[in-house]
Amino acid sequence: MVHSATWPPIAWRPGPVPHESLEPMILNFVTRIIVAALGVVICANTAADPRSINDGVYTKEQAKVGEVLYTQQCILCHDKKYFRPVLKRWEGQAINVLFTVMSTSMPENNPGFLSEKEYVDILAYVLSLSRYTAGDSELEYKDGALDDLIVAARQRK
Ligand code: HEC
């Protein structure tokens, strides 16, 4: 029996795991975290996808309430066609901006005279005047509801 001087062979000797073999593991782990984070961001974006005023965002009843207020407070200066070009100009923006303009500066002869609820009902009527489709739930101004609502050109259904 001839024994080699290096027995057991080097490769069998117990020893520390070489650092090189850890790096791919760490990289893999980091990649997974990034992929997971991206996934969360993408999902969050989809969930917060802003609705547009084409999505049936007011009710017919609300527009009727708004019509009465509009007739009392706005028609003196703004006929029923006034808002068509106005909405066009606001396209692409959150309707909250338009809401703020009207609720803080209108009626011109008595700014901020109405309650926010009344202004939002008027806004519902304004949408109906431009023949946006009504839906099952009222247009809401609370909790930033108008921040995520985008003014968009009317879609014919
Ligand atoms: C006494 C006249 C008067 C009354 C009443 C009045 N407005 Fe105005 N409104 C104006 C004038 C003047 C302007 C600025 C010039 C323009 O755009 O016609 C204006 C502008 C606006 C704008 C800005 C439009 C834009 O270009 O973005 C909105 C929105 C608006 N009015 C809503 C209302 C609403 C809603 C009422 C009723 C609650 C109302 N206004 C009542 C005179 C009036």
From N to C, what is the helix and strand string?
HEHHHHE
Shape: elongated
Number-wise, the strands total 2
Distance between the termini: 92 Å
**Share of β-strand residues:** under 5%
Fold-level CATH name of the domain at 51-150? Cytochrome Bc1 Complex, Chain D, domain 2
Based on CA atoms alone, the radius of gyration comes out at 31 Å
Unreliable spans are none
Task: Assign the CATH superfamily of the domain at 51-150.
Answer: Cytochrome c-like domain
Mean pLDDT: 85
| Tally of alpha and pi helices | 5
- Name the strands of the widest sheet in spatial order: 1-2
Bound compounds, each kind once, are: heme C
Structural class: mainly alpha
Q: Using the coordinates above, name the CATH class of the domain at 51-150.
A: Mainly Alpha
CATH architecture of the domain at 51-150: Orthogonal Bundle
- Report the major sheet: 2 strands, parallel
Descriptive overview:
This protein is an all-alpha fold and 157 residues long. The chain has a domain at 51-150: Cytochrome c-like domain (Cytochrome Bc1 Complex, Chain D, domain 2). It has helices spanning 22-47, 60-73, 83-89, 95-105, 116-129, and strands at residues 51-52, 149-150. Strands 1-2 form a two-stranded parallel sheet. Helix 2 packs across helix 5. It is elongated and about 105 Å long. The chain starts with 21 loop residues before the first helix and ends in a 7-residue tail after the last strand. The site of heme C has 14 residues, from helix 4.
